[in-house]
Specification:
two-stranded parallel sheet; seven-stranded parallel β-sheet; binds uridine-5'-diphosphate
Length: 351
């Protein structure tokens, strides 16, 4: 049997490239579609080394309908995982039109192209940001969707609404939105991982960059929250566990006897919360490295605590997270060391 080809938009990005591996390991044929606006072509080399073959890649923008149609036709795509989107929360506040235009046009163009070619299965990357500052923990899929805190968050909410409406209208599309909690870590080979451009916004890349000496110290954003140690609590999920959730969702669409027009949402987290100080301590235990840090003021818009009830994904998709926080942090560190080593090799060969 020839493997099903799955188009992975944003497949060169952090979650995208790990999902490419999970797809290939599960017997699918991943095809990357990426404009490399926030990723680097060297990820393709990492994938080639890990997988032992070249993953087909289309360098194009998801708002380019002709390019999407061409890739889907030529590769005989049977399903799509849609990651391609701008994702910097702060930037989205500065440039809302850019975010609405890019993220929503990409989704609409993709949906039209899928309908035109009768490609039916779609996994959409959504976010726990749709829950805002939740009143009850853990957060279930039925927790209220609160007003978004940023244009970025709003593009995820609107994206979900578009998908729900399309399925409700009876369009022959089977769609799952996965609401990610906090993806961290890297593939255990240490050859692919997160590549933040400039100063990282997220906690774990900031920790690894501080531990390797690229940043002087980490600032912990507030220790006066109503949590046991005063710092914020999040649900950190290993990116390979998250990647595997996409495979489970795709399988669900393919094999479960679900209607031709279908839409559902699933939380993808570990179900366990960790505070910022716990993450720092666990990183130090996992790597033996010390993370210099100081307590700073709260960051605007941060919720005190967010963690998932991921039991719906377990029940219906047969998926749950297996990897520990410690493993995720050790893998993130391995990736940081790899980046450091390859940067040195590069500068040595250039001099
Ligand atoms: N955080 C921090 N210092 C940093 C970056 C993040 O203390 O330099 C905290 C942040 O306040 C939050 C947690 O780490 O409580 C996770 O933040 P991140 O930006 O990684 O993810 P978010 O949950 O905001 O999407």
């Amino acid at each position: 049997m020839t493997p099903s080809s799955i188009l992975v938009t944003g497949g060169a990005g952090f979650i995208g490239c790990h999902t490419v591996i999970a797809l290939a390991e599960a017997g699918y044929r991943p095809v990357i579609f990426d404009n490399f606006s926030n990723s680097q072509p060297k990820v393709l080399e990492g994938l080639r080394q890990i997988l032992g073959f070249e993953v087909p890649c289309y360098r194009a923008d998801c708002t380019n309908r002709a390019a999407l149609l061409e890739a889907m036709r030529r590769e005989r795509v049977s399903g799509v995982i849609h990651f391609a989107a701008f994702k910097a929360v702060g930037e989205s506040v500065q440039k809302p039109l850019l975010y609405y235009s890019n993220n929503l046009n990409a989704l609409l163009t993709l949906l039209e192209a899928m309908i035109e070619l009768d490609v039916r299965d779609l996994i959409f990357s959504s976010s726990c940001t749709v829950y805002g500052q939740p009143e009850q923990l853990p957060v279930t899929e039925n927790s209220p969707i609160l007003p978004p805190l940023s244009p970025y968050g709003n593009t995820k909410q609107i994206g979900e609404e578009i998908l729900r409406d399309v399925a409700r209208a009876g369009e022959a599309l089977r769609i799952i939105s996965l609401r990610y909690f906090n993806p961290i870590g890297a593939h255990s080979s240490g050859m692919i991982g997160e590549l933040p451009l400039g100063v990282p916004n997220n906690l774990v890349p900031y920790i690894t960059q501080t531990a390797i000496g690229l940043r002087a110290e980490l600032v912990v954003f507030g220790n006066d929250y109503p949590t046991p140690d005063g710092t914020c609590i999040r649900d950190y999920i290993h990116v390979m566990d998250l990647a595997e959730a996409h495979v489970a969702a795709l399988r669900h669409l393919e094999y479960a006897s679900i209607p031709a027009a279908y839409y559902d949402v699933f939380n993808i987290g570990t179900g366990k919360g960790a505070s910022v100080l716990e993450v720092i301590r666990t990183f130090e235990q996992a790597t033996g490295k010390i993370v210099p840090y100081r307590i700073g003021p709260r960051r605007l818009g941060d919720a005190a605590a967010v963690y998932a009830d991921a039991s719906k994904a377990h029940k219906h998709l047969g998926w749950k997270a297996h990897r520990t926080l410690k493993e995720a942090l050790a893998d993130a560190w391995r990736w940081q060391l790899y980046l450091h080593k390859t940067a040195h090799l590069l500068s040595a060969s250039n001099s």
